[in-house]
Amino acid sequence: MTTDIEQKEVKPKKQPKRKIISILKTIMLYGLMFVVIYSVVNWWRQPIMPANPQLQLTDYQGQTIDLAAMSHERPTLVYFWGTWCSVCSFTSPTINKLAADNYPVVTVAVQSGSNQELRGYLDQHQFDFTTINDQQGNIFADWQGQVTPSYVVLENGEMTQGLTGIQPLWSLKLRLWLASVF
Questions:
Q1: Which of 54, 85, 104, 133 has the highest count of CB atoms within 10 angstroms of its CB?
Q2: 92 contact partners, CB below 8 Å, separation of at least 6
Q3: CATH fold of 56-181
Q4: The pLDDT of residue 12 is above 70
Q5: Cα–Cα separations (whole angstroms), residue 166 to 5, 6, 98, 161
Q6: How far apart are CA 154 and CA 142, in angstroms?
């Protein structure tokens, strides 16, 4: 006579090592898909340097900023943002830290009101970065900007990188460093 226990088929259990490898492969595949999709979207939405860019600008305080000269000394980050941009409220503190760490940063506030309104916003949020007030959005339009925040790395007066969205501090530092090395 056989018992109920003997009659049941014993299914082999999936080995824990195989299961972990399968999970890691899935995570890597989804991660790779994310990176590819993110890179394509970022490339499509990035600003494009105009044929004859205006690189001598005046900040909201009346000071002349020469982006070409700045970028000849060190790669310079140009950050397009707006006081009205909800994502920029997360990225602007990172840009402020980058500027405080003595990286060359120039920001362009797109359609963010008068110089007085912009000054009030910068003071309220304790932002000390150099800011150009692009009241009508003409500078951003010249760069064919599609979304804020957008970033451009300039070296020797030429755009070497363009990107959009939330960027961590380490990523921006790495991009500036890479621009100085290559």
A1: 133
A2: 81, 107, 125, 127, 149
A3: Glutaredoxin (3.40.30)
A4: no
A5: 58, 60, 14, 15
A6: 16
